[in-house]
Automatic annotation (TrEMBL):
UniProt keyword terms in alphabetical order: Membrane, Transmembrane, Transmembrane helix
Naturally occurring in which organism (per UniProt): Enhygromyxa salina
Keyword Zinc-finger set for record: no
Segments crossing the lipid bilayer: 28-47, 110-131, 143-161, 201-222, 243-264, 297-315, 336-355, 367-385, 392-410
Claim: Nucleotide-binding is one of the keywords in the record: no
Domain of life: Bacteria
Name of this protein: Glycosyltransferase RgtA/B/C/D-like domain-containing protein
Length: 550
């Protein structure tokens, strides 16, 4: 180390240039991940649909942007009617640029498959560089197979495969998180800052993950350098990705403030309820019920042992647990990169768990918030495999492989059921409304995605929950929300029967038709759900008077 406090090289380059043949590992990982994602998205019995109606909300804003109506939900309200009904501005911008006509389902799922492939390639490349830096003549490591294992574990992750075909921002965010972490490990600070900024605009939970990573990296680097201004300044470079993410968050908050007068998008106030969260207990309960059981490395236990082996070897500096040559394993320097990756994962998961209320009966609709960090553990697990006895490593990996083989078809079957539900409860009502209702109809809805995207743009869609209507989202009470809805003067309602029953106290309604999903699969216990298309005959006199006085 020089007196100026500058390190000559980042750790990932200590082993010198990576042999060209070993670079095949990331390439093979990309091919495997792309093939799996396409097969997962399109093979098997089912319908061509997304598993969440929220995907159609992002597509609706992207459509408005592409057609020159700005980031508006109802395009006729432009330019004064911009809304903040989406949680991933970068995903909206990408969808606006991506060719999606005439039917966006196939091209958006293909985009997700490409991003999933890029994520697997990045995971493999990070493992390749970390393994190369740890390999030596005295302490050889099967670098190519280690990198390939990381890529395959990422490519076959049931969580990431579901995210890639969901139509949501999961694969984009996951890819950007790994790109940012790789730039950090290579000390490419401009790229780290840019990808941190972009990742935060893809999903706000990224900030906690990057803060966890740079906290470990910055403290270790600071302890290694002389106590000089140059040393402190060099250590502060590790804050670049977190600063980039903070700037991304600031830009998003500024946009929301300018558009709606509130610091967060409508979704935060409707789904999260402002500052109210379920706390650590509820978050951990959801993790244990709906997130971690779908991680084969966790459910099979072997992954935890491999992560522990990787961390023990790096932090103790004692080499591999089994010598790969007849010579004894040689001591190594203590390394921090794997610890930083694990801390980033834990902070990201726990931070997400405590930042919102979570219902343990809700499946992917809420599990997707955690999916963006699922590509980090495979990297550490692959490095841990090189630290264990050959027989033990086989014992630890076998349950992961078996669970992966069982969970992928189970996840695909569940997702097909969720997609059928979106067709029955969202797509079919939207198509029916488009075909039978007047082109200038005002329709109040509970599912605001398909209805907005699939109906004529001359129709006005009122989001009765407030996800795409700031005034409803910030109304002080249910009665105030009802009065905002009254002022919107809806002519028709498309609502689940329980919400329709509540609104029947406000409006005189006539049932036109109903749509039924006999086994609603968004929750742990499927049950029948009905959505009604109703004509608004009139506002009930008591509510007309009540709302007129507000």
């Amino acid at each position: 180390m020089s007196e100026s406090g500058e390190r000559p090289k980042p750790d990932v380059d200590e082993a010198g240039p990576i042999p060209r043949r070993e670079l095949w590992a990331p390439r093979i990982s990309v091919v495997i991940a792309l093939a799996l994602a396409i097969a997962y998205a399109f093979m098997g019995a089912g319908v061509h649909e997304f598993c969440l109606d929220d995907a159609w909300i992002h597509l609706s804003y992207a459509k408005s942007l592409r057609l020159g109506d700005g980031l508006s939900y109802n395009p006729g309200d432009y330019p004064g009617g911009w809304e903040t009904g989406f949680s991933s501005p970068l995903w909206v911008a990408l969808l606006a640029a991506w060719p999606t006509d005439p039917d966006p389902v196939v091209p958006v799922k293909l985009l997700g498959a490409l991003l999933h492939a890029a994520t697997a390639g990045l995971a493999s490349m990070i493992a390749l560089e970390l393994a190369s830096a740890r390999a030596s003549i005295e302490r050889p490591i099967p670098v190519m197979s280690t990198a390939l294992l990381a890529g395959i574990l990422c490519a076959t992750s049931p969580t990431l495969l579901q995210g890639a075909s969901s139509g949501m921002e999961v694969p984009l965010t996951t890819c950007l998180v790994l790109a940012c972490l790789r730039a950090c490990l290579r000390e490419q600070w401009l790229l780290a800052g840019v990808t941190g900024f972009a990742a935060e605009l893809a999903r706000p939970e990224v900030l906690g993950c990057l803060v966890g990573f740079v906290a470990v990296a910055g403290l270790v680097e600071l302890s290694r350098r002389p106590r000089t201004w140059a040393g402190v300044r060099a250590s502060l470079r590790w804050t670049t990705p977190a600063l980039g993410a903070a700037l991304g968050l600031g830009a998003w908050v500024l946009y929301c403030q300018l558009v709606s007068g509130w610091a967060w998008p409508n979704t935060a106030y409707v789904k999260i309820g402002g500052a109210q969260t379920g706390g650590l207990g509820e978050g951990l309960a959801y993790l244990s019920a709906q997130v971690l059981p779908w991680q084969p490395w966790f459910a099979g236990v072997g992954g935890l042992a491999l992560i522990a082996a990787a961390l023990w070897t790096d932090l103790s500096g004692k080499g591999v647990l089994e010598p790969r040559t007849h010579a004894p394993a040689q001591p190594t320097t203590r390394r921090w990169q794997l610890l930083a990756l694990v801390v980033a994962y834990v902070v990201g998961m726990v931070g997400t768990a405590v930042s919102r209320p979570l219902n343990p009966d809700v499946l992917f609709f809420e599990a997707r918030y955690f999916a963006i960090f699922a590509a980090i553990p495979p990297i550490v697990i692959a490095l841990g495999l090189t630290r264990t006895h050959r027989v033990l490593s086989l014992v630890l990996v076998l349950p992961i492989a078996l669970l992966t083989g069982l969970q992928i078809p189970a996840a695909q079957t569940l997702q097909r059921a969720q997609e059928r539900g979106i067709v029955l409860l969202h797509g079919d009502p939207a198509r029916h409304a488009s075909a039978t209702l007047p082109d200038d109809a005002v329709i109040a809805v509970e599912g605001a995605g398909s209805m907005r995207y699939r109906t004529p743009r001359t129709m006005t869609i009122v989001d009765a929950l407030g996800l795409n209507d700031a005034e409803i989202a910030h109304a002080e009470s249910d009665s105030a929300k009802a009065c905002v809805l009254v002022r919107r003067q809806p002519e028709y309602l498309v609502m689940p029967e329980q919400i329709a029953a509540a609104l029947a106290k406000v409006f005189e309604l006539r049932v036109i038709t109903e749509f039924v999903d006999p086994a609603y699969a968004q929750v742990a216990e499927p049950h029948e759900v009905r959505v009604l298309l109703l004509e608004v005959v009139a506002v009930r006199p008591r509510w007309a008077e009540r709302c007129a006085n507000q």
